[in-house]
């Protein structure tokens, strides 16, 4: 039986109204939003590392400039999302501490290595493609600050996906070695990209409640299916083979049947045992420590100017 204020809240959500920071909300709604928004922000920040590895190795100045712009966008996406999380009463320092201690999650996809330049094309195409599939519905999230952050972020994501696909179009028109490099990257990134959408619906602990609160608009499997249906023709256009022997068009359902991702791999990577987890967290911890002098300087300056102002 719902308490009156909870019922009123649910009626607002069901009516498609946006919930704003100062309005009443169930404690569970606040907690699950801090959980999801902070993990989303951590994903943006950690997601800069795999691509950053290729900024100094980009094949042309133009590709370097594009990759720089994309990585910089990701930093901005992280900032929008940390700000959205702060409106729920959590400090940024707390969120960073949760990431650096290994307590907070971030998207599993960023724990894989970027071995060749083709990986940068495949990341733009598949990882940002999956992110777009997942983020477009989040623009309609019931929590105001999160949905507004998503609207801004989605505007920039289409460029991210486009530039990745453009890299691949160039490479598949190149030498056989370049085509093989692209196929190798697809083989390594296909299944981890499907895992970005989360566990299957029957294993998803948050979906039911998140959908009732209009945080999540579609289930994990629904978005994964849409992503596969949209991406297979793009792979065919590039002359690539999707590394899934069970992939087959199903006329009845109007979509592709495809194999099961390796859920054990997903849970292992989430548990911190992926190929690059310690390297990624190490890089973030080092960045935090290396930046301490700068943060301390800013704080000292702010205190001095506040004291001067008060004097
Ligand atoms: N990587 C890491 N953790 C994952 C995961 C993944 N691929 N999939 C699921 N999880 C975690 C969930 O966070 C949850 O753990 P928690 O309770 O400790 O938070 C647990 O596994 C069970 O999963 P659920 O399906 O029950 O959890 P959700 O309802 O939260 O659904 C989600 C998972 C779809 C990822 C959802 O949290 C979400 O939409 N998050 C916001 C968007 C996001 O983070 N997208 C991935 C990164 S996009 C990106 O980085 C931007 C681009 O620039 C690349």
UniProtKB/TrEMBL annotation:
GO terms for molecular function: phenylacetyl-CoA 1,2-epoxidase activity. GO terms for biological process: phenylacetate catabolic process. The lineage of its organism: Bacteria, Pseudomonadati, Pseudomonadota, Alphaproteobacteria, Hyphomicrobiales. InterPro entries: Aromatic_CoA_ox/epox, Ferritin-like, Ferritin-like_SF, PaaA, PaaA_PaaC. It comes from the Bacteria. Pfam families: PaaA_PaaC. PANTHER family: 1,2-PHENYLACETYL-COA EPOXIDASE, SUBUNIT A, PHENYLACETIC ACID DEGRADATION PROTEIN PAA. GO terms for cellular component: cytosol. This is Phenylacetate-CoA oxygenase, PaaG subunit. Keywords: Plasmid.
């Amino acid at each position: 039986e719902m308490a009156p204020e909870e019922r009123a809240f649910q009626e607002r959500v069901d009516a498609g109204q946006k919930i704003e920071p100062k309005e009443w909300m169930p404690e569970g709604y606040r907690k699950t939003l801090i959980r999801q928004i902070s993990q989303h922000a951590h994903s943006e920040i950690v997601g800069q590392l795999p691509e950053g590895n290729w900024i100094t190795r980009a094949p042309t100045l133009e590709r370097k400039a594009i990759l720089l712009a994309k990585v910089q966008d990701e930093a901005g996406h992280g900032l929008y999302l940390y700000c959205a999380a702060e409106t729920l009463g959590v400090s940024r320092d707390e969120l960073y501490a949760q990431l650096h201690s290994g307590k907070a999650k971030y998207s599993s996809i960023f724990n894989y290595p970027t071995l060749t330049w083709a990986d940068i094309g495949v990341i733009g195409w598949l990882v940002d493609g999956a992110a777009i599939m997942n983020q477009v519905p989040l623009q309609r999230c019931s929590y105001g600050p999160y949905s507004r952050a998503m609207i801004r972020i989605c505007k920039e994501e289409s460029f991210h996906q486009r530039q990745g696909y453009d890299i691949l179009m160039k490479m598949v028109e190149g030498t056989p070695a370049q085509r093989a490099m692209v196929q190798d990257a697809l083989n390594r990134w296909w299944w981890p990209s499907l895992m970005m959408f989360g566990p299957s619906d029957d294993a998803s602990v948050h979906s039911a409640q998140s959908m009732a609160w209009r945080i999540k608009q579609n289930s994990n499997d629904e978005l994964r299916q849409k992503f596969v249906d949209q991406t297979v023709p793009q792979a065919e256009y590039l002359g690539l083979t999707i590394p899934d022997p069970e992939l087959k068009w199903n006329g009845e359902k109007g979509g592709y049947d495809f194999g099961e991702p390796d859920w054990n791999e997903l849970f292992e990577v989430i548990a911190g045992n992926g190929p690059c987890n310690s390297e990624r967290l190490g890089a973030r911890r080092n960045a935090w420590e290396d930046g301490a002098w700068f943060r301390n300087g800013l704080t000292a300056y702010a205190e001095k100017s506040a004291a001067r102002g008060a004097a």
